[in-house]
Design a protein that fits this description.
The complex is a heterodimer of chains A (about 325) and B (about 240). Chain A has helices at about 1-15, 40-65, 70-95, 115-125, 130-150, and strands spanning about 170, 175-180, 195-200, 210-215, 235-240, 250-255, 265-270, 275, 285, 295, 300, 305-310, 330. With about 325 residues, chain A is an alpha+beta fold. Among the domains of chain A are: about 35-95; about 165-330, Rieske [2Fe-2S] iron-sulphur domain (Rieske Iron-sulfur Protein, 3-layer Sandwich), CATH 2.102.10. In chain A, strand 8 and strand 9 (about 285) form a beta hairpin. Chain A starts with a helix and ends with a strand. With about 240 residues, chain B is mostly helical. Among the domains of chain B are: about 15-45 and about 55-110, Cytochrome Bc1 Complex, Chain D, domain 2; about 120-200, Orthogonal Bundle (Cytochrome Bc1 Complex, Chain D, domain 2). Helices cover about 50% and strands about 0% of the residues of chain B. Chain B has helices at about 1-30, 30-35, 65-75, 100-110, 125-135, 140, 165-175, 190-200, 215-240. Chain B is elongated, with a radius of gyration of 25 Å. Chain B starts with a helix and ends in a 5-residue tail after the last helix. The interface between A and B is medium-sized, with 36 and 34 residues.
Chain lengths: ~325, ~240
């Protein structure tokens, strides 16, 4: 309270006790003298006042906190405050601030012969060098060497020099397939017309090679190519969950309710709609992917758990040149 | 003696209702699902002129054992009767009246032992658990905001008009190319949470303004750049114009 009184008092002193305005100096002006523009001045002041009003409105709306459509009013008040402020500035700039356009010629060139002098100075200062071309070559070599040296550490980004890591997957023969919560999948858990995401037991789930998508198809509908025969376990097939196009997660499974009349089962990537056929070894049916989904061979152990029978048949992850010639390797 | 008459009357009335359902079935469903709902994979004699429609025999799955659950879902969403074979069933205006649908549902469920119409309890569910489940099972196709999306050769629908019962039914059926989820994959309790989340996503806690389908910051950014950005550019051009000379 006392603080408020002090503030009020000092405010009054400021208002009442302000000094007389100093008379304008009669000295010669730098800026051309335009007439006053009281109309525009009033406009600018009114706009500034409106802006302050809107700001006050914002504070009120914010403080009351129980107004319906509060978000809209907050936005409206702050937005109008900015609009009025901008309008005031525009009026000030266009109508009140003195403007003047000056055109000046370029000054005449003072030292006309100087350019030639510099050229011949540069030319003559190399006269002590007798094997100029060799010198230039050496200079180039050193410069290029420096640049190459500076860029060399970038090679650790890969994949040019250390690409082995990109083909490592956690899958080895006998590795169990687990769900998100590390519960191992049994073959009986996998039902037709549903799909499951599985990971290598004990592996880092974030790793590209660790995740697979599991579906069960009627064994009669499987059309696996010769080199993938036996990759399924009683109709259960597992493919890498990472799309071979751009590396998104395959999160869509299209599976017909009435096969006679509806699209075939397909694994679909949500990024660019690459569509893979799970019955024929993950071949591309549609979309930008350039190679089939890598397939993981499966087997069922004596207790009914799903286990990997080996590694993927191809490299996991998005494609680049030569990727088809690579085979995945177990991580060390 | 009187109770015998009552029972006889009730039995007759019951069989009359079932017979009624059978009649509606014969009229709207049997051309694809076959007589007695046994299904048909018969030849199609092309679509075409209206007078040939009665000759057309479509392909349709057997309805034995699908139960009241599937009949209720397909008929009350307007998925069935289908306009023609080979297209994706979509939510549409109901062709059949309520009484006809009731009769059909009873008839189809009498064809074989099948699941009954579910009665989900979304109020027992948990929104955040529902979101996690929806993200892992549904969002791949329907998007995390349940606005629907696209999958090759099919269109996962938006869930805005789906009632809790219909969501529960669809999860168990997997209509068209949707996977189906057994109680082992999604338990009834988890389903309650999923439905609770779908209801939330259909009516999100909106702070107002233009929601842009609630699909996140990308469309909002696009709108600000293209609408507000171009407006600002116009204002700059106006400000920068010379007044004199």
């Amino acid at each position: 309270m006392a603080r408020a009184k002090d503030l009020l008092l000092s405010g009054l002193v400021l208002v009442a006790g302000r000094g007389r305005r100093a008379p304008r100096s009669k000295a010669e002006r730098v800026v051309p003298d335009y007439d006053a523009n009281p109309g525009a001045e009033t406009w600018a002041i009114v706009l500034l006042l409106l802006s302050s009003l809107c700001c006050a409105g914002f504070i009120v709306v914010y403080a009351v906190d129980r107004i319906p459509h509060q978000t809209q009013f907050l936005g409206l008040s702050l937005g109008l405050a900015l609009v009025f402020f901008a309008a005031a500035l525009i009026v000030t700039a266009l109508r009140l601030v003195v403007t003047e356009e000056l055109v000046e010629e370029y000054p005449p060139q003072l030292h006309a012969g100087e350019v030639d002098l510099i050229a011949s100075t540069v030319e003559e200062s190399g006269s002590r060098l007798t094997r100029r071309r060799l010198f230039k070559l050496a200079l180039l070599g050193a410069g290029g060497g420096l640049v190459t040296a500076a860029l060399t550490p970038a090679a650790s980004f890969g994949p040019i020099l250390r690409i082995k890591d990109y083909f490592g997957t956690p899958w080895t023969r006998g590795r169990r397939l687990v769900d998100e919560n590390n519960r191992p999948y049994k073959a009986s858990d996998i039902e037709e017309k549903d799909f499951y995401t599985a990971f290598a037991e004990g592996a880092d789930k974030e790793e590209a090679g660790a995740s697979v998508v599991l579906v069960r198809l009627p064994t009669s509908s499987l059309e696996l190519p010769a080199d993938l025969q036996g990759y399924d376990a009683n109709g259960i097939v597992a493919y890498s969950k990472i799309c071979t196009h751009a590396g998104c997660a395959i999160s869509m499974y299209r599976v017909p309710t009435f096969a006679a009349d509806e699209p075939k089962p397909a694994l679909v990537c949500p990024c660019h709609y690459s569509t893979f056929d799970p019955a024929s070894g993950g071949t591309v049916q549609f979309g930008p992917a350039g190679r089939p989904l890598p397939m993981l061979p499966l087997e069922i152990d004596a207790r009914g758990f799903l286990r990997a029978k080996g590694n993927f048949n191809g490299a996991v992850g998005p494609s680049w040149w030569g990727v088809r010639n690579r085979k995945p390797s177990p991580e060390s | 003696m009187r109770w015998l008459v009552v029972i006889a009357a009730l039995t007759l009335a019951g069989s009359a209702a079932a017979a009624d359902g059978k009649q509606v079935f014969g009229r709207y469903c049997a051309s694809c699902h076959g007589p007695n709902g046994a299904g048909s994979t018969g030849q199609r004699y092309g679509g075409g002129a209206a007078r040939n429609q009665s000759l057309q025999t479509g392909m349709g799955p057997s309805l034995h054992g699908v139960g009241a659950l599937a009949a209720d879902f397909y008929l009350r969403t307007g998925y069935m009767p289908l306009k023609r074979n080979g297209i994706q069933p979509r939510r549409s205006r109901l062709l059949l009246g309520n009484a006809q649908i009731d009769a059909l549902v009873r008839y189809v469920s009498s064809l074989g032992k099948g699941p009954a119409i579910p009665h989900p309890h979304p109020e027992r569910g948990n929104v955040s658990e529902g979101m996690v489940l929806f993200r892992s099972h549904c969002a791949g196709c329907h998007q995390i905001v349940a606005e629907g999306g696209y999958v090759t050769n099919a269109v996962p629908p938006a869930l805005g008009d789906a009632t809790p019962t219909q969501v529960a039914e669809a999860v168990r059926i997997g209509p068209y190319v949707m996977p189906k989820f057994s109680t082992k994959a999604i338990s009834d309790e988890q389903l309650d949470s999923i439905i609770r989340y779908v209801e939330y996503a259909n009516h999100p806690d909106n702070r107002g303004g233009w929601s842009l389908g609630n699909i996140g910051p990308v469309p909002e950014g696009l709108v600000s750049w293209f609408i507000a950005g171009s407006a600002l550019l116009g204002v700059c051009i106006v400000i920068g114009k010379r007044l004199h000379g």
